[in-house]
């Protein structure tokens, strides 16, 4: 940006403005705002496959894959380059909501309802990288194949997966935004995500003055120049690591560097403990199992750290009110038993005189949030009323979120939206 056309009277104002712009640029804010402002365009492209914009870009740049797998093109328009620049932000904050599981890979995609790590990070040697989540679903029962899930995953992870509610329609898998309760992309949440990532990457750099001192001391080191150059490239993330090669479309296999660091630390700790156990003549694990045990240990630790409290919606106790004459009222609720990681759905049907027509109690795996269980209970209550052949029915529950969601025009991006769409 050229600083031209500055008059004498406005020189001070322009100088201050230029200083603010340079400061924001140094902190990554200008680029972050630009990327986040292009985020809605990427979001609309993903969620409107029938739109003209999506069809044009897909035919030109990613005819045989998803937009996240499309490669940058030097012949692309400014609009396409803007989409590419914001695509990584969407990839970082998105999560797949499982419908039929045919579009989601077990090991490669983000689909787990765990905020700290939505991807499967433990080693699954019997599962191929391209294996879909649909292989874990029983299409006849419209639910998870619990025996297979328990066979492949650790107990805690298996309970998390089995607790994910599935739609009885088994619709298409859906990409939702994992950083807002509505599941919809917002520029504010995307910018917070970028700031959080930048803060993590810049940990330890206290000020620009400290950075200048660091670089000055680096170039004054009495070592061969090639070592200085190597250090400079390493500090600026300019070495040809696998991640950088993938970003430049030189390599095709992306490596999760953060995962490698975590695994390295755990393996080192396990090897140290194994050495101590051998010295004391204790039983130890064979060396060829250390790597897989480290992956399982890391995933179990991250999952436990991200457990969310199962707090119910605050509401004032109210006395039950009967429906109008010749009508029925169905009350539904869900309760969580943390000790056994299970939940129970309860449904009771009464007529206008208050007499019970039919009760229902159902034990299910505990979901990650109470609102998902309440949505599950609501769907079961509707199905129960249909099974009893009732008409003129009033449904009543104590979850304000579920009741408000039912009154929305669309629940397409809610984590439990596919459950409410079954009703």
Question: What can you tell me about this protein's structure?
Answer:
The chain contains 15 helices and eight strands. The protein has 423 residues and is α+β, with helices and mostly antiparallel strands. β2 and β3 form a beta hairpin. α5 runs antiparallel to α6. It starts with 10 loop residues before the first helix and ends with a helix.
In the CATH scheme, the class of the domain at 328-420 would be Alpha Beta
Class derived from helix and strand content: alpha+beta
Q: How would you name the CATH homologous superfamily of the domain at 328-420?
A: Ribonuclease H-like superfamily/Ribonuclease H
Q: If you consult CATH, what is the topology of the domain at 328-420?
A: Nucleotidyltransferase, domain 5
Task: Tell me, rounded to a whole number, the average pLDDT.
Answer: 80
- Low-pLDDT stretches are 1-14, 16-30, 202-206
The strand count comes to 8
How many alpha or pi helices? 15
Distance between the termini: 56 Å
Q: N-to-C SSE series?
A: HHHHEEEHHEHHHHHHEEEHEHH
- Biggest pleated sheet: 4 strands, mixed
| Cross-sheet strand order for the largest sheet | 7-6-5-8
Using the alpha-carbon principal axes, give the shape.
globular
Cα-atom Rg, whole angstroms?
A: 27 Å
User: In what range is the share of β-strand residues?
Assistant: 5-15%
- Helix amount: 40-55%
CATH architecture of the domain at 328-420: 2-Layer Sandwich
């Amino acid at each position: 940006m050229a600083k031209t056309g500055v008059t004498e009277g406005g020189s001070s104002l322009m100088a201050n403005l230029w200083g603010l712009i340079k400061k924001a640029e140094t902190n990554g804010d200008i680029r972050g705002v630009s990327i986040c402002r292009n985020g809605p365009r990427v979001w609309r492209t993903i969620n409107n496959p029938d739109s003209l914009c999506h069809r044009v870009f897909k035919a030109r740049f990613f005819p045989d894959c998803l937009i996240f797998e499309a490669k940058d093109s030097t012949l692309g328009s400014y609009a396409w380059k803007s989409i590419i620049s914001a695509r990584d932000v969407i990839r970082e904050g998105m999560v797949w909501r499982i419908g039929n599981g045919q579009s989601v890979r077990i090991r490669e995609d983000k689909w787990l309802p765990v905020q700290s790590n939505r991807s499967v990070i433990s080693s699954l040697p019997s599962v191929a990288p391209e294996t879909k989540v649909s292989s874990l679903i029983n299409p006849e029962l419209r639910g998870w194949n619990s025996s297979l899930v328990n066979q492949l995953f650790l107990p805690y992870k298996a309970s998390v997966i089995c607790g994910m509610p599935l739609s009885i329609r088994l619709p298409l898998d859906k990409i939702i935004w994992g950083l807002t309760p509505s599941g919809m992309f917002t520029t504010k949440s995307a910018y917070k995500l970028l700031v959080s990532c930048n803060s993590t990457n810049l940990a330890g750099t206290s000020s620009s003055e400290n950075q200048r001192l660091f670089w000055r001391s680096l170039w004054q080191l009495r070592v061969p120049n090639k070592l200085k150059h190597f250090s400079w490239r390493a500090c600026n993330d300019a070495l040809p690591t696998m991640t950088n090669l993938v970003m430049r479309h030189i390599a095709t296999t992306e490596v999760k560097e953060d995962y490698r660091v975590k695994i390295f630390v755990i393996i080192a700790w396990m090897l140290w403990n194994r050495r101590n156990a051998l010295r004391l003549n204790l039983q130890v694990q064979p060396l060829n199992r250390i790597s897989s045990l480290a992956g399982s240990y890391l995933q179990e630790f991250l999952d436990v750290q991200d457990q969310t409290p199962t707090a119910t919606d605050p509401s004032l106790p109210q006395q039950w009110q009967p429906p109008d004459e010749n009508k029925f009222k169905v009350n539904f609720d869900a309760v969580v038993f943390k000790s056994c990681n299970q939940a129970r759905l309860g449904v009771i049907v009464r007529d206008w005189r208050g007499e019970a027509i039919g009760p229902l109690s159902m034990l299910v795996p505990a979901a990650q949030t109470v609102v998902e269980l309440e949505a599950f209970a609501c769907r079961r209550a509707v199905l129960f009323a249909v099974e009893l052949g009732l008409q003129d029915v009033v449904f009543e529950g104590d979850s304000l979120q579920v009741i408000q969601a039912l009154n929305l025009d669309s629940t397409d991006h809610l984590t439990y939206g596919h459950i409410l769409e079954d009703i």
